[in-house]
Amino acid sequence: MHHTYRNQGFQLFVSFFEIYGGKLFDLLNDRKKLCMREDGKQQVCIVGLQEYRVSDVETIKELIEKGNGTRSTGTTGANEESSRSHAILQLAIKRSVDGSESKPARVVGKLSFIDLAGSERGADTTDNDKQTRMEGCRD
Predict the structure, then answer these.
(1) Under a CB-based contact definition with an 8 Å cutoff, are residues 107 and 54 in contact?
(2) pLDDT higher for 72 or 29?
(3) 48: how many CB neighbours lie within 10 A of its CB?
(4) b (16+ CB within 10 A) / e for 69-92
(5) pTM
(6) Residue 87's CATH number
(7) Is the model more confident about 24 or about 96?
(8) Banded pLDDT at 3 (limits 50, 70, 90)
């Protein structure tokens, strides 16, 4: 990260969750069940999602590896280990109010990376891939 921004109160936070079977789980906090809500400003909020303040790329990579290791996976005709969930990795840039860390930081930007489950091509799967078909039938 560029050091000139550190004195301006910018902070980077990482969170990582999955949507599996219509439910949300925190991939960085022991798969804790989460709730999705809409706030008064009609912004979607993930209640209970743990955010980790990071200051270097290595820590971000470690968190991604930890989250990927916690993800729901299964075997398909195309892959021995295929994700069975949608995963959302979020990087939030926040800025401290008046440079003070005692007050809540304000989000100034958020970048979401989304990995969708079930993206195997039909030509790469077999007709008897029961688990993939069952995953697609869940409400």
Answers:
(1) no
(2) 29
(3) 13
(4) ebbbbbebbbeeebbbbbbbbbeb
(5) 0.72
(6) 3.40.850.10
(7) 24
(8) low
Domain, as residue range, for 76 = 3-137
Is the distance from CB of 136 to CB of 115 less than 8 angstroms?
no
Q: Looking at residue 65, what is its pLDDT? A: 96
Is there a contact between 34 and 49 (Cβ–Cβ < 8 Å)? yes
Largest distance between two CA atoms of the chain? 60
Residue 118: phi and psi, rounded to 5, are 70, 35
Chain mean pLDDT for the chain: 80
Split into its structural domains, the chain has a count of 1
Radius of gyration of the chain from its Cα atoms, rounded to whole angstroms: 18
Residues 6+ apart with CB under 8 A from 42: none
What pLDDT does 83 receive?
66
- pLDDT confidence band for 64 (50 / 70 / 90): very high
Q: How buried is 111 (Cβ within 10 angstroms: 0-12 exposed, 13-18 middle, 19+ buried)? A: exposed
